[in-house]
Amino acid sequence: MEKTWFLYLTAVSLAHCFLACLAMNGSNSTTDQSALLAFKSYITFDHPHHILATNWSSATSVCHWIGVFCSKRHYRVVALNLPNMGIGGTIPPHIGNLSFLSYFNITSNTFHGHLPSELA
Ligand SMILES: *[C@@H]1O[C@H](CO)[C@@H](O)[C@H](O)[C@H]1NC(C)=O
Ligand SMILES: *[C@@H]1O[C@H](CO)[C@@H](O)[C@H](O)[C@H]1NC(C)=O
Ligand SMILES: *[C@@H]1O[C@H](CO)[C@@H](O)[C@H](O)[C@H]1NC(C)=O
Ligand SMILES: *[C@@H]1O[C@H](CO)[C@@H](O)[C@H](O)[C@H]1NC(C)=O
Ligand SMILES: *[C@@H]1O[C@H](CO)[C@@H](O)[C@H](O)[C@H]1NC(C)=O
Predict the structure, then answer these.
(1) Residue 62 lies in domain
(2) CATH of the domain at 106
(3) Which of 12, 35, 104, 113 could be a cystine partner for 97, CB 3.0 to 4.6 Å?
(4) pTM, entire model
(5) Ligand 1: distance of its center to the CA of 82 in Å?
C-alpha cells in the first residue's frame, strides 16, 4: 500500500515537473521582460507621451506594468489585459516567449496583421 502511494506520488511529481519544466524551457522573468519590451517596440501609440510608453520601463518589474499580470509565486507573466488602450501595430513572435501567458486581450485597439504562430 505504502509502496503504491510512493509510486503514485513519484509519478505525479514527475508528470508535474515534465509539464512545468517543458513550459519553463529554461526561461525566467528576464525572458518575460525581453518579450514585453520587444512587443512594446512594435507598438504604435495613438498619442505621443502615451502612458504605456513610460510605464513599461525596465526600471520596474514587468509585474508592475499597466495591463500586465503575474503569477504570485514565480512572478511570471500570466495575463496581458490591454483592451481599448489607444495602441496598435503588429504582434511580434517574441510574445510567444511568455511561457506562462494564458490570457491576452488587446481588443478595441488598432493592431493589424496576424497573431504569430509562436503564440500557440
Ligand atoms: C535568467 O536566465 C538568464 C540566462 O539563462 C540568466 O543570465 C539570468 O540571470 C536569469 N535571470 C533571473 C532573474 O533569474
Ligand atoms: C506604472 O503604472 C502602475 C499602475 O498605475 C504603477 O503602479 C507604476 O508605478 C507605474 N510605473 C511607472 C514606472 O510609471
Ligand atoms: C524570443 O523569441 C524570439 C522570436 O521568436 C527569439 O528570436 C528570441 O531568441 C527569444 N528570446 C529569448 C530571450 O528567449
Ligand atoms: C524553447 O525551446 C525551443 C526549442 O528548443 C526554442 O526554439 C525556443 O526559442 C525556446 N524558448 C525560450 C523562451 O527559450
Ligand atoms: C476583453 O476585454 C473587453 C473589455 O474589457 C471585454 O469586454 C471582453 O469581454 C474581453 N474579452 C475576453 C475574451 O475576455
Answers:
(1) 2-119
(2) 3.80.10.10
(3) 35
(4) 0.81
(5) 27
- Which bound ligand lies closest to the C-alpha atom of 65? 2
Give the model's confidence band at 102: pLDDT under 50 very low, under 70 low, under 90 confident, else very high.
very high
Q: Report which of 50, 44, 48 is spatially closest to residue 112, judged by C-alpha positions.
A: 44
57 Cβ below 6 A of ligand 1: no
Percentage above 90 pLDDT, the chain: 75
Half-sphere exposure of 33 (CA within 13 A, CB side): 13
pLDDT tens for residues 23-62?
Answer: 666 889 999 999 999 999 999 999 989 999 999 999 999 9
Report the C-alpha gap between 41 and 91 in whole angstroms. Answer: 10
